[in-house]
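Progress against Task 2.4 (sequence-to-structure conversion) is shown through the following example record, which the project officer requested during the mid-term review.
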Amino acid sequence: MAVIADRDDGALVAVSLDPLRERARIALSGRPEQVLIAPDGRIVTTLSDRHEVVVHELGAEGFSERCRRAVPAEPAAMAMTSHGLLVTSRGGARLTLLAGAELEPGGSVGLPRDPYAVAVSEDELMVLVTHVVGGKVSRIGFADGRLGPVETVLAQREDVKRSASMKEDWGFEPFSPNGAPQGASPRHRSGGSSVRTTRVAQQAFAIARVERGRFVVPASLADPTPSPRGGTGYGGATNFMGLPPHQGVNLQLDDTGNPDLMDHMHRFAGQRFFKHQCLLPRGAVYDAQTESLWVACRGSGLVLGFNRDARQGKVGVRLPWYVLEVPDGPVGVAIEGRRLLVWSEDEATVAVHSLPSRLVRPAQPQDTHTAEVELALERRRPLDDEVALGRRLFHLTARRTANDGRACASCHPSGRDDGMTWITEDGPRQTPILAGRLDETTRPYGWNGRNEALDGHLQRTLKRLRGTGLSREERDAIFAYVRHIPEPQRAPQTELTQRGRTLYEDPAVGCATCHNIDEATNDGRTHDLGMVAEGDRLAAFNTPSLRFVARSAPYFHDGRYPTLSALLADRDSNMGHAGDLDEGDRAALEAFLLTL
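Structure tokens generated for the chain above:
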């Protein structure tokens, strides 16, 4: 049996495998993010918009609810341990233990932004949590079922190339005199005759524990450095190493949670290997019998199988050894017996495929397989056709939006932001959040406010990314999908936030002068604040919306402020006068900003 958490339908669906058919269904009170079948047969589901975990049992009469527990905002993934259930909360940025069989509160710890997948070491002394953005893995102690301490492990890879100066390569020097980048994006350094760039692991929605207590995290390695040959897109078509701005990797973690190797999921050799890329990994599962890793790749409609490398003795390195074509939107993958189960969200389809007894050699472009059996579920609340089309296009990696295979979701996972600052022809530009901000009150669009029309802004972006293009109907569908994406959660109102609102509205502080207090948007104007970064070609910048500003670090057009606290404390900033406030007032103002 398999159980599907159908986010579109807001339902749990049980599927029998022999024969493949729908067995039971129950409508949920919120949007399910992930489902887990506990060892005792209970079915546990995270409800991201209700901030709850709900437990069901499945009997002859169908699903029956047993209990539900409150957890921090936007619960995402889960892992079962002998001490209870571990739950990550993406919005609340926390890891929570629901202890014992009754899942009672057992403590929680704070994490960096956007935590997602969670796994536990074999001895249950360590928990690993991946992060959708930021190039980090959190390592948390778990001795005796107590969470803490929390350590941050960087999931990054540095490349070095002997070169002339970057100023000669790109026409400007995007670094401060001490060799560090201007602003708060410390990802590139130049010195002497060498150039270094740090590529950051993003899109880490999954983690799998493999052989000898090791872990593998499928991710996308992002590099915002432009090509020495120039480029109008964000990062250019390739960086100075000849690699694309986003490239699939399997991050290898040893049994202590330390990264020791990152290998490419695919060979980047022109168009020949584009359909074997995995730039948007969403699920992963390990098959112990064949020592192989299976990764669901949403953007390409593939599940890739990776063998254990005989030379390095690690799973998931080098090229994929098996390529399975599945319906659009694969986001979940599991193993039942000797069968691989794949849930494709876009087509509401469960695909079943027999696992190979062994993987013989790396896959070639012609070596593709299709699922043996598929079951399309009948949704009770299907997406609007335009929204459904928009979602497919938003995650499409087939060179429509960018000639290097990036999709909209590559830089805007879940319609949000990647936390990165990209080098562009206009200078360094931080990725803005999209969800909840696509309406007329946020005009004009772009950091320099060049486009009054949203469609014009998207067309300009597509041109810079050098994709094959999208029709007006397709662009409108993307807008419809982004407007459909659930908005991030806001912090609740408190006495402290009310005090912060008073400061926000105070003309002496100056926040509301440009940022409309009621809509938390902007004044529709560009301003020259005398705060240009190295490489900026224009000095005036559009006032950005502050909706969900708590979820979109770093800040300012070049990402120079890593946190809201750093932004508000800068006495040299020309954006209002928050830097003149005392520490307590700044804390109140920041608390209010978290409610927007």
